[in-house]
Predict the 3D structure of the following.
Amino acid sequence: MTGSNAAATITGSLAGRGILVVRGDPMRKRTLLRHAVAATFLLLFVVSAPALAGKDKTFLDSDAAKEADEPQKFLPDYGKLVEGKDADWVFFPNGSLKEKKKVVLNAFQSNAAETHAVDARHAAEYAPDFLKKWLTKQGFEVVDSGGDMVIDGNVFNAWEPSGGARFWGGWMANPGCGIEVVLKDGKGDILGFVRHKSRGSTIKDAVENGLEEVAKAIAKGK
């Protein structure tokens, strides 16, 4: 068997088994090989991308969940919180709550660690009025009773900056506040919940800044 006949026989055998056989000059072979490799990587990306994109980061996977002086005892299930668009962490199983036009706001409580308890109690006192203001701007009506949605709130932390933060200055030198809200319908069923931390020029300002974001999250449901 001549060399050309042998090559033809081997080529035909490989092609019959579904193996890519490239004929022609070496340059063309290298070009086709590069294209084949690129196509393979593209296919792998297309297959894996939806799975990667669909995996939201949860609160319990975050550094925020590791703060020893920030209790996690108010919300029904901290494992359901995912990163929000406006507020830090949210859970809205049915999306936007914009259709819940009338809202009842209950007094906020506080469960901050002892070292932050006094500031947290003051923050809790400020919270309902600020939440009412920002919910109204989002198109909700705050009522005393008979609402489509009831909101309970909690301040889990409130703080003045430490001496070191004051020394270095910047945004981290500002007071801050950590707020949680639980949203229920008139029957007491959970509609969603939010956990968010914010800063401001004072603790009172931090409370308002935080509740502005919380109100946006409630309206958008994300």
User: Anything to note?
Assistant: Confidence is low (pLDDT under 50) at residues 6-15, 45-53. The domain at 59-220 is CATH 3.30.160 (Double Stranded RNA Binding Domain). The helical segments are 3-16, 26-53, 117-137, 163-168, 203-220. The beta strands are 82-83, 89-91, 102-105, 109-110, 141-143, 149-159, 176-185, 190-199.
